[in-house]
Amino acid sequence: MASAGKSLRLMVDHWLGTAPGDKVHVTEFRNRRSTDQRYVCVETLRAAGPVALFFFRHRDGTWCIYPPGRERPMIRMFG
């Protein structure tokens, strides 16, 4: 799913299927830019019980349900 330009709220609505009036709570968050650890955990209540998802902020500003990839060392050849 393309998430470019979508707010966190739109992503939560899409993945959790929330409707107007549904309560969604942020149960955990981290915003450490120095280590690229930016995420929130949101939770809503369903008939079967609580449902929670983590949303990760990527370097390009998008929110996704998967964490950003790590930067790995590279070797470049200049010639």
UniProtKB/TrEMBL annotation:
It comes from the Bacteria. This is Uncharacterized protein.
